[in-house]
Design goal:
The complex is a heterodimer of chains A (330) and B (333).
Chain A: H1 2-32, H2 37-41, H3 48-58, H4 64-76, H5 90-125, H6 130-144, H7 147-161, H8 174-184, H9 188-224, H10 227-234, H11 239-276, H12 282-291, H13 295-323
Helix pairs in contact in A: 1-4, 1-13, 5-6, 5-9, 5-11, 5-13, 6-9, 7-9, 7-11, 8-9, 9-11, 11-12, 11-13, 12-13
Chain B: H1 4-16, H2 18-35, H3 37-40, E1 64-71, E2 74-81, H4 99-135, H5 137-152, H6 155-166, E3 170-174, H7 176-179, E4 189-193, H8 194-220, H9 223-230, H10 235-271, H11 281-288, H12 297-324
Antiparallel strand pairs in B: 1-2, 3-4
The chains are: A mainly alpha (330), B mainly alpha (333).
Chain lengths: 330, 333
């Protein structure tokens, strides 16, 4: 237990350092960027005095260092500032867009894990057969296909040609849909949610699925070649028990690590996938803010995603240590 | 820098592995396409003509129809042919531009960005990694914490943010094949998207740096390095003469694999409308999206070329890894 606490404390300090770095970096982005927010906010025919006044209101006339300290203090208190464009609190807009992206990322992650790990084990167990070579080919395609193009091709074949699934949008969130089901016994919300989720989930999850498949297959193959497996098999341990108890458990470490590392990648990838499916999420919000140089919004998203990544990584190390006693928490 | 043993094992792997050979051929053909685009493209990729727009690829149907048009001040009935033909083997887009030519020119942008971004990443990443691993101590701590910060951002978000900071800076350089008079009727300049290249490098170098650092740590305690130090060789010279040559193989293997990521990031950026040039695969895929119901080939063709290129790179990467086995992990997007 003491071990666990020291681990968490040490990693938290490192994590806080990285998050501070993230905040500083995004602050610098805004400072370096040539756009003048006051100019953006002011009407086109605004007098120089008015622009000057807005600059002062935004605190842009203060020395950079003071601005920096104010920004960091604000972020620590959960105040990410106000959008240049809509003048609404950034945090509120982000929290509004977050469920869309999270649902998509988690669904993609689940899809990838559920498909790839059994397929990887299967492929390794029947190495060299048709099943193995087919899965390998599919996974090569998966890591080589840009997610936005896969998305468009799926829309082309499934939605346009056969009219099966909706091409875009997110009319209802998971929370709302569940509410409908529980309180009114209405399945419509949930089925609409599922229908709109399928294509974006596959588009976002495929690359990741292919990557995990390769890792699982290689890990299992490597583990199966080890001597203790031979010994256990010689002892007469049933094959399924051998697979799940020993081989899989020991080959999961890299899989868990990459899963954690790729969560950030999933959020990044969802920027493009969201754009294809007109999906209201962080990615859409980010692109829209980028097009109008709305820096507070972009800064907020970057900080949130960065901090999320740091947290996931700590969690991943922790899970790995629990899964594999050889991994030291120290 | 590449030892005989490396060369032999590469040759052996190439001979025994037919799939890898296919990968190398795919990649090489893309590079040839990029280099000689003006000669290989059957038409000017920017040449518009609305009378022949939305022609499907050859053998994929199409129709002939009679329309009235104003020509030279009088109204005439003309037959507009929309039948796919060998003149435009992969069809034409909504402005009547030749899809095959555009795709060939798109290879240029992808390959150009991929190689230049990788070059920048290699120089920066290797230098930082070598210094970090060789010197260790505080230098190492500071540099690696910096790497951690860069890694905390998803690659695509950070490249987009950098485009927001620096704007879209592009440099047009004269196309040597056209300027020298070898080919005519093709665009005279090729666009180098500087911001995109640098923005992508700013996320890729960290992966290189991490591997380079690991290799430098392994090499610095080898006897030949200690011997060189005892003889009074300067640290920089030791890194250059001894540590780097002994670390270069895994770095180059990782670099190969990462070129695939760069191509995907580049096409994603152009897809989102931040291409800097409109002769790029991502740009054409985005443009074709509006005509998905009627002209399926517009988005399909450039995407297939991306997949083929990236498959080629991945196969080459697998080949290098199997042949040289430096035991590295694949970095993600």
């Amino acid at each position: 237990m003491k071990e666990v606490l020291t681990f968490l404390a040490r990693r938290s300090i490192q994590g806080i350092f990285v998050v501070w770095g993230v905040i500083t970096t995004v602050f610098l982005f805004r400072v370096i960027s040539p756009t003048n927010p006051a100019q953006l906010m002011a009407p086109d025919d605004a007098s120089p005095e008015l622009v000057r006044q807005i600059e002062e209101d935004l605190g842009l006339t203060e020395p950079i260092f003071v601005q920096y300290v104010n920004y960091v203090i604000g972020v620590v208190q959960g105040d990410l500032g106000f959008s240049y464009m809509t003048n609404t609190p950034v945090l509120r807009r982000i929290l509004h867009a977050l469920p869309g992206t999270l649902e998509l990322a988690v669904a993609a992650l689940l899809f990838a894990v559920i498909v790839s790990i059994p397929l990887g084990i299967f492929s390794a167990m029947y190495r060299g057969t048709k099943i193995d070579s087919t899965s390998n080919l599919v996974s090569l395609g998966g890591v080589s296909t840009p997610n936005f193009w896969l998305a468009i091709m799926m829309v082309l074949f499934i939605s346009v040609q056969f009219g099966l699934l909706p091409t875009s949008g997110r009319p209802i969130g998971l929370g709302e849909a569940t509410g409908l089901l529980v309180f009114q016994g209405d399945f419509g919300g949930l089925s609409s949610w599922v229908a709109h989720m399928i294509l974006p989930t596959i588009a976002l999850g495929t690359y990741f699925m292919a990557l995990l498949f390769r890792l699982t297959r290689n890990g299992v193959l490597e583990e199966m070649g080890k001597e203790y497996i031979l010994a256990a098999r010689g002892k007469g341990l049933p094959e399924p028990l051998l697979m799940y108890r020993y081989v899989l458990r020991n080959s999961l470490t890299p899989v868990v690590t990459v899963t954690g590392l790729q969560l950030g990648g999933l959020i990044g990838g969802s920027v493009v996938v969201e754009s294809v499916f007109a999906w209201p999420g962080l990615g859409t919000l980010f692109i829209r803010s980028l097009n109008v140089s709305d820096w507070p919004m972009m800064q907020g998203i970057l900080i949130l995603v960065g901090a999320g990544y740091v947290l996931t990584n700590i969690a991943v190390d922790f899970v790995n240590a629990k899964l594999n006693p050889q991994v030291d928490l120290a | 820098m590449i030892s005989d043993r490396t060369r032999t094992s590469l040759k052996k792997e190439l001979r025994s592995n037919a799939v890898a050979t296919i990968g190398v051929i795919l990649l090489l053909s893309m590079i040839v396409m990029a280099l000689f685009a003006p000669m290989l493209a059957p038409h000017d990729p920017t040449d518009q003509d609305s009378s022949r727009n939305h022609q499907p690829p050859v053998f994929f149907g199409g129709e002939e129809e009679e329309t009235t048009r104003m020509i030279d001040g009088e109204i005439r009935t003309v037959t507009e042919s929309n039948v796919g033909s060998m003149t435009h083997p992969l069809g034409t887009d909504s402005n009547g531009r030749d899809v095959l030519s555009r795709t060939i020119y798109g290879a240029r942008t992808s390959i150009l960005v991929a190689f230049s971004a990788m070059l920048v990443s290699l120089v920066v990443g290797t230098t930082v990694g070598m210094v970090s691993g060789y010197y260790g101590g505080n230098t190492d701590t500071v540099l690696m914490r910096f790497v951690d910060i860069v890694l905390a951002f998803p690659a695509l978000l950070i490249t987009l943010a950098m485009i927001g900071v620096f704007g879209s800076v592009n440099v047009d350089i004269p196309d040597p094949l056209v300027v020298s008079g070898l080919v005519s009727g093709r665009p005279t300049h090729l666009t180098v998207p500087i911001t995109i290249t640098l923005a992508i490098s700013s996320v890729i170098w960290v992966w290189i740096a991490r591997v380079a650092r690991g290799e430098a740590i392994a090499a610095k305690n080898e006897e030949y390095v200690i011997a060189a130090r005892t003889m009074g060789m300067s640290n920089w010279k030791i890194i250059w003469k001894h540590v780097l040559p002994n670390s270069i193989t895994p770095i180059l293997v990782l670099a190969t694999i990462q070129v695939a990521s760069i191509i995907i990031i580049e096409s994603s950026l152009s897809f989102l409308g931040f291409s800097g040039t409109n002769l790029s695969w991502g740009y054409d895929i985005a443009a074709g999206r509006d005509y998905l119901g009627t002209s399926w080939w517009l988005s399909t063709v450039p995407g297939l070329f991306i997949v083929v290129t990236v498959v080629g790179i991945n196969l080459l990467g697998d080949l290098l890894r199997d042949a040289l086995d430096p035991g590295i992990q694949r970095g993600g997007l």
